[in-house]
Amino acid sequence: MRRRTKAPAAPLPQRAGIDPVRLRLPADPAGAWPTVRDHLLTRYAGAIGAERVDAMVAAGRFVGADGAPVGAEEAYAPGRYVWFHRDFPPEERVPFEVGIVHRDERIVIADKPHFLATTPRGRHVTETALARLRRDLGLPELQPAHRLDRLTAGLALFVVRPEDRGAYQTLFRDRRVRKEYEAVAAYEPSLRLPVTVRSRIVKERGVPAAREEAGEPNSESLVELLECRGGLGRYRLVPATGRTHQLRVHMARLGVPILHDPLYPVVREDGPEDFTRPLQLLARTLEFTDPVTGVPMRFVSGLALSGLV
């Protein structure tokens, strides 16, 4: 079996905590691309326009493995690597800081605020926890071991060294991390708690909200009431699985949707962020045995929900 050649290191540094895009030129048996520019036009002109592609080529924005700019008339060579930085669209700054609960030579445990995405995705690129932490901590190789929803606040684990990432990702994949969340929602006296909710959750790409359907359950959450005050309750949520929006779906299923949830039980129209009404869901604790040292670890968020004070 033929082994794939490892890609060379990027010749461009990160920009705003974001890696450059790496492109490997594909085979061209029909000879459709005499020059690298011809392929770049085919690949990107539909998204950003031919003029913008040509302007980037002229400005030396596309570079080869040696860091030298790719010229407009440079001959096409299948298998060659090319790097470039995307143009980042303007993003509204999330007006909350990322806290650091723990940091050592292997991991960073961050306290992610509400509204801040964990990793670049869609329209959130530079305004993400990963980009901020790389810049602020000077850790360009930092990577997440798991993902916390953008609207959820609390603990997220990042790995400092690429060689350690697999070990920590495996903890989450194999469900060897115990996670506890807190939520604020309406208090319903008739709801008998604690209760374990099991259901089949399906999340389709491009559809904002997940849905429940008949079939074998693929999600499980324990829901407990911690206190109630003024018609609201503070709940402890312990997921046994990690489906997208699982806790939000299960709380809505129980008839007590999480306070300020824009998707459950009803999807609200998209609009400007209201930073004064964060989703009242917090990843409170993380517990696991460190896969490198074998030492039991437990971390607690320093954040607090504002819905029940």
From TrEMBL:
Gene3D superfamilies: Pseudouridine synthase (3.30.2350.10). It holds the Pfam family PseudoU_synth_2. It catalyses: a uridine in RNA = a pseudouridine in RNA. SUPFAM superfamilies: Pseudouridine synthase. Residues 107-252 form the Pseudouridine synthase RsuA/RluA-like domain. CDD domains: PSRA_1 (cd02558). This is RNA pseudouridylate synthase. It comes from Streptomyces gobitricini.
